[in-house]
């Protein structure tokens, strides 16, 4: 139990016409936070969702995969479509494209540390070129009616942190909400997120700032907020195979007693996820994605290592479904027996 005062910790804010009472955001994660998983996370408590990053150059190529990445659910609002790029022309085009696909806001990625993206001076490499940051934001904001938000890291490396300056540039450009992952680019995913640096951005501007990095449960969410003073929390890797952690964090943000999710019935969630993957991506891609999601869902279960090894070898969809059902339902039975004993 983290807090029992029963009063909301955060006051919320607006993104355009949408009121966000629960500033708990699901982090965009390429290859993970597609529509099926975002909808599950939404139901468990995410108040804001964002699609995976879409390269701005990809949007006019008419690829089915790109369209699928931008698909959003009717019950998902407010939801952002995230775009990345360094060329203002492409960014304008991508922002308009995303707006036409129903995004409530356009999120610009300036946090991606991947070499291929940074080489094109996109993602977190842009943090080294502040005038270009301003130009890209102005281009996106000028191209669409919906709000534009920005996701950044705290700088390129330890010696060139510029999170406050970037935050100010964003606010001056007209960005509606800033998301700060408290790592530099050179940290990649190593070390710890620096929540004080998120606080530096928060102090520098008056637009809502969402803190991100290493929040894994209710306690770390509250600690990140205490240290940074941020207006909201974004959670990424901790939701993998564990979307119910969002319910725990939501309750903490509402000032409610936090219940452990130890007794959660995994199989109904896993089944819903698998069927939605199948519908959204088709059998081949769903089968590939199922391997990583099912492996994550099985973490901490009895006999999970052996199950994962066997599951990775399966190549047909029906076999995957049957194997997952047998594993997760027998887990549930074992848990019931343990509770009854
Ligand atoms: C597999 C993976 C894919 C990611 N893809 C994106 C992405 O497409 N866009 C983005 O802004 N951040 C992306 N991120 C970064 C996350 O949104 C988040 O900032 C980071 O994981 C830190 O938060 P966490 O400690 O809660 O995971 C990705 C992270 C991971 C692990």
CATH class categorisation of the largest domain: Alpha Beta
State the shape.
Answer: globular
Distance between the termini: 25 Å
Bound molecules: flavin mononucleotide
Number of helices: 13
Helix content: 40-55%
Largest sheet: 9 strands, parallel
Low-pLDDT parts are none
Number of strands: 11
CATH topology of the largest domain: TIM Barrel
Mean pLDDT: 94
What is the string of helix and strand elements?
Answer: EEEHEEHEHEHHEHEHEHEHHHHH
Superfamily at the CATH H level of the largest domain? Aldolase class I
Portion of residues in beta strands equals: 5-15%
CATH architecture of the largest domain: Alpha-Beta Barrel
How large is the radius of gyration? 20 Å
Structural class: alpha/beta
Number of domains: 2
Descriptive report:
By secondary structure, the protein is α/β, with parallel strands linked by helices. The chain folds into 2 domains: 13-253, Alpha-Beta Barrel (TIM Barrel), CATH 3.20.20.70; 266-340, Non-ribosomal Peptide Synthetase Peptidyl Carrier Protein, Chain A, CATH 1.10.1200. It has 13 helices and 11 strands. The protein has helices at residues 35-44, 64-69, 88-100, 115-119, 130-143, 163-173, 195-204, 218-228, 245-253, 266-281, 283-298, 304-313, 317-340; strands spanning 13-15, 18-20, 24-26, 49-50, 54-55, 79-84, 105-110, 148-152, 177-181, 209-212, 232-235. The strands form 2 sheets. Strands 3, 4, 5, 6, 7, 8, 9, 10 and 11 form a 9-stranded parallel β-sheet that branches. Helix 6 (163-173) links the parallel strand 8 (148-152) and strand 9 (177-181). The longest helix is centred in the C-terminal third of the chain and has 24 residues, at 317-340. The radius of gyration is 20 Å and the shape is globular. The chain binds flavin mononucleotide (FMN). Flavin mononucleotide binds next to loops.
């Amino acid at each position: 139990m983290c807090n029992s005062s029963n009063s909301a910790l955060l006051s919320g804010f607006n993104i355009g016409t949408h009121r966000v009472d629960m500033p708990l955001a699901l982090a965009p994660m390429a290859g993970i936070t597609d529509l099926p998983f975002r909808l599950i996370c939404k139901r468990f408590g995410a108040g804001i969702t964002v699609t995976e990053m879409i390269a701005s150059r990809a949007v006019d190529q008419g690829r089915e995969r790109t369209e699928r990445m931008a698909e959003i659910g009717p019950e998902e609002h407010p939801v952002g479509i995230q775009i990345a790029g360094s060329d203002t022309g492409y960014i304008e085009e991508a922002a308009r494209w995303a707006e036409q696909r129903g995004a409530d806001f356009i999120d610009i990625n300036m946090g991606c540390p991947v070499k291929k993206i940074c080489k094109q001076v996109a993602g977190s490499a842009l943090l080294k070129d502040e005038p270009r940051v301003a130009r890209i934001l102005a281009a996106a904001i000028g191209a669409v009616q919906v709000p534009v938000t920005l996701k950044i890291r705290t700088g390129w490396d330890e010696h060139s942190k510029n999170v406050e300056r970037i935050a100010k540039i964003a606010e001056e450009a007209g960005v509606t909400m800033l998301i700060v992952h408290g790592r530099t680019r050179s940290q990649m995913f190593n070390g710890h997120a620096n929540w004080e640096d998120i606080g530096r951005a928060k102090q520098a501007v008056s637009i809502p700032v969402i803190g991100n990095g290493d929040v894994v449960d209710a306690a770390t969410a509250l600690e990140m907020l205490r240290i940074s003073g941020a207006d909201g929390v974004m959670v990424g890797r901790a939701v993998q195979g564990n979307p119910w952690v969002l319910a725990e964090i939501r309750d903490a943000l509402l000032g409610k007693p936090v219940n452990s999710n130890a007794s959660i019935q995994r199989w109904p969630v896993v089944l819903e996820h698998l069927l939605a993957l199948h519908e959204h991506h088709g059998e081949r891609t769903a089968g590939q994605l199922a391997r990583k999601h099912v492996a994550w869902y099985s973490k901490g279960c009895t006999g999970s290592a052996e199950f994962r090894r066997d599951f990775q070898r399966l190549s047909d969809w029906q076999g995957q479904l049957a194997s997952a059902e047998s594993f997760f339902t027998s887990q549930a039975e074992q848990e019931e027996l343990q509770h009854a004993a």
